[in-house]
Structure to design on (527 residues):
C-alpha cells in the first residue's frame, strides 16, 4: 500500500509498519462493526418524520479532496476511475484489433511471433562478455527494431522473461546448472528462439563431446546456406562438438561441420523442440570471437581469421535471419539542429525573453547535464560545434524538416497553453534531454514541448530501452500541477490519461475508428 496511499496535505508515507493487536482490541473492533451493521439494517423513518441534515455529494467530494481523510486509491471514486482506464486499455489490446491498414506489413517490420522485440543475452553474469556480444549483435541486426538486455543468472531463474523474449542468446561455455538448463529448455518448449554460442546447453536429440585438444584452435568450417550452397571459412573451435543422441528427441539439422583428421564433425546444428515450434541454433565454433581477440594464434593465425571475418558475419547473419530477426542494418544518424517553433506569438515571445536572460551573458551558451546548447539568434551565423554540443535556432528556415509540418500541428492544436512553444529536432538522443536545463526554469505560461522525429537513445522506465524509429509520436511536455489539486492528488493517473488521449486521437484517423493498439511511454519526472 505504500505506493497507493495518499494524504490530502501532499505528504507521502515512506513506510507502513504492521502492528499486532491484542485479542481484546480485535473483539472491540468486531463489536463496533456489528453495531454499525445493525444500524444500517434498522427500518427507516417515515418520510414526513424529521430527518437530520445530510451532506450533499458535492460537499462529501470536496471533503474527500481537501484532505480531511486519508486518500486511498481503493476508495469508490478512484476504483471507478482506475477500472475505466484499465477497461479502455483492454479494449485497445492486440486481441481486439481487426484487419486494419498496417504500415509495418508493407515495410516488412511486422514481428510474426507477437512478442516484444527483446533480445536477451546470457553470459553467466560476465559483464565484459555481454558488452562484446551486444556489440556483435548491433553489427548484425537492425538496432531500431530490437532492444538488447543482459539476462543475469538470478534473473533467469526468477523473473518472468520467457513470454517477453524474442530471442535468447547463450554466450558462455561454463557448465549450466540443472535449474538454468530446465529454465532454458522450458523457454524452448514454449516456442522460444535460442542461439547458442559455445554453450553447454543440449536439448533432447543431442549430446556434447569434448575435444579439449582443439579448444581455441583454428579449424575449417563448412556452413550450409539456406539456398543449399556451402560457405568455407576459418574459425576458432570451442573444444567441443555435437553428436546425435541415439535415444532420439527433437529434430536435428546439420548446418555446419568442422574438419579434423580427415573427419567431419558437427559444429552448428538447428534443433526444433516442443509442439510450439521452439527453435535453437547451437554453435560449437566461436562465431562471437573477432580475429584480434586471441594473441596466441600468432600473426599467421590472425591473418587467416581476418581473411574469414567477412564470412563469419555472413554466417551469423544467416543464422539470425533464420531465427526471425531482421538483419537490414540502419545507420544511426547524427543529432540534428533544434528549432524553436511558434504557434502563439505572445507565449513564444515570453520564452525568447527568458532565453535571452539565461544565455545572453554567456555568449548564447546554455549548459546542462545533457551537454552544451548554443543559441543562434535570428540573423546570426551557425557556430562551429564540438562533440556533445547542439545548436538551437530561434528562427527556423522556411523548410526545416520533411518529417514535421508546423502548419498541420498548428491546425490541430486546441490547447490554450500546452504545446504552444515547440522545440523540434529531426534526430536527438531523447526528447527529455532537449528540455534538460529548461524544463524546471522556463516560464510556465510558455507551454513548452520538445518533439523529435527520431530518438537514438530513448529510455523507458526501470532502465528499459525505448525503440524510437521514424513514425513514432515522441515528445516531452512541460506540465506543472499543484500538489493539492484534484489531478495533483492522482499523479499516477496521468499516464492513463496520456494513453487514452493518444488512443482517442488515433481513432479519428480513417480505418482506426473501432479499436486501436497503442504503446505509450509516459515517465513522470517531478521537478
Amino acid at each position: 500500500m505504500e505506493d497507493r496511499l495518499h494524504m490530502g496535505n501532499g505528504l507521502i508515507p515512506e513506510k507502513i509498519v504492521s502492528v499486532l493487536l491484542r485479542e481484546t482490541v480485535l473483539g472491540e473492533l468486531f463489536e463496533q462493526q456489528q453495531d454499525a451493521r445493525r444500524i444500517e439494517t434498522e427500518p427507516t423513518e417515515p418520510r414526513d418524520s424529521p430527518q437530520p441534515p445530510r451532506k450533499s455529494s458535492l460537499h462529501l467530494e470536496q471533503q474527500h479532496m481537501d484532505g480531511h481523510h486519508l486518500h486511498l486509491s481503493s476508495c469508490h471514486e478512484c476504483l471507478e476511475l482506475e477500472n475505466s482506464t484499465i477497461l479502455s486499455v483492454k479494449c485497445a489490446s492486440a486481441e481486439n484489433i481487426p484487419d486494419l491498414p498496417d504500415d509495418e506489413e508493407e515495410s516488412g517490420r511486422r514481428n510474426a511471433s507477437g512478442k516484444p522485440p527483446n533480445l536477451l543475452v546470457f553470459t553467466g553474469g560476465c559483464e565484459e562478455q555481454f558488452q562484446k556480444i551486444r556489440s556483435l549483435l548491433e553489427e548484425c541486426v537492425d538496432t531500431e527494431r530490437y532492444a538488447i538486455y543482459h539476462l543475469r543468472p538470478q534473473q533467469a531463474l526468477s523473473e518472468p522473461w520467457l513470454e517477453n523474449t524474442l530471442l535468447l542468446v547463450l554466450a558462455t561455455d561454463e557448465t549450466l546448472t540443472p535449474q538454468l538448463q530446465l529454465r532454458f529448455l522450458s523457454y524452448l518448449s514454449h516456442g522460444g528462439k535460442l542461439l547458442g554460442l559455445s554453450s553447454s546447453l543440449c536439448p533432447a536429440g543431442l549430446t556434447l563431446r569434448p575435444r579439449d585438444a582443439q579448444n581455441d584452435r583454428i579449424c575449417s568450417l563448412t556452413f550450409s546456406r539456406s539456398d543449399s550452397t556451402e560457405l568455407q571459412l576459418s574459425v576458432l573451435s570451442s573444444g567441443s562438438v555435437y553428436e546425435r543422441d541415439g535415444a532420439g528427441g527433437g529434430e536435428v539439422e546439420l548446418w555446419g561441420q568442422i574438419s579434423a583428421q580427415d573427419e567431419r564433425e558437427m559444429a552448428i546444428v538447428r534443433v526444433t523442440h516442443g509442439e510450439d515450434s521452439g527453435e535453437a541454433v547451437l554453435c560449437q565454433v566461436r562465431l562471437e570471437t573477432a580475429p584480434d581477440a586471441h594473441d596466441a594464434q600468432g600473426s599467421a593465425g590472425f591473418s587467416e581469421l581476418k581473411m574469414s571475418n567477412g564470412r563469419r558475419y555472413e554466417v551469423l547473419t544467416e543464422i539470425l535471419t533464420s531465427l526471425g530477426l531482421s538483419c537490414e542494418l540502419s545507420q544511426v544518424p547524427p543529432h540534428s539542429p533544434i528549432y524553436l517553433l511558434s504557434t502563439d506569438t505572445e507565449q513564444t515571445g515570453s520564452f525568447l525573453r527568458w532565453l535571452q536572460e539565461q544565455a545572453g551573458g554567456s555568449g548564447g551558451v546554455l549548459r546542462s547535464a545533457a551537454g552544451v546548447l548554443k543559441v543562434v539568434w535570428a540573423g546570426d551565423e551557425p557556430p562551429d560545434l564540438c562533440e556533445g554540443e547542439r545548436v538551437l535556432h530561434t528562427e527556423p528556415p522556411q523548410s526545416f524538416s520533411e518529417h514535421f509540418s508546423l502548419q498541420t500541428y498548428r491546425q490541430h492544436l486546441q490547447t490554450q497553453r500546452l504545446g504552444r512553444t515547440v522545440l523540434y529536432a529531426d534526430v536527438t538522443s531523447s526528447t527529455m534531454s532537449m528540455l534538460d536545463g529548461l524544463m524546471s526554469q522556463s516560464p510556465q505560461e510558455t507551454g513548452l514541448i520538445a518533439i523529435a522525429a527520431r530518438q537514438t537513445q530513448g529510455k523507458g522506465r526501470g532502465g528499459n530501452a525505448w525503440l524510437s524509429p521514424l513514425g513514432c509520436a515522441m515528445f516531452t511536455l512541460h506540465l506543472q500541477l499543484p500538489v493539492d489539486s484534484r489531478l495533483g492528488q492522482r499523479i499516477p493517473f496521468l499516464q492513463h490519461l496520456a494513453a487514452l488521449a493518444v488512443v482517442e486521437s488515433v481513432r479519428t484517423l480513417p480505418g482506426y475508428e473501432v479499436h486501436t493498439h497503442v504503446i505509450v511511454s509516459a515517465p513522470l519526472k517531478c521537478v
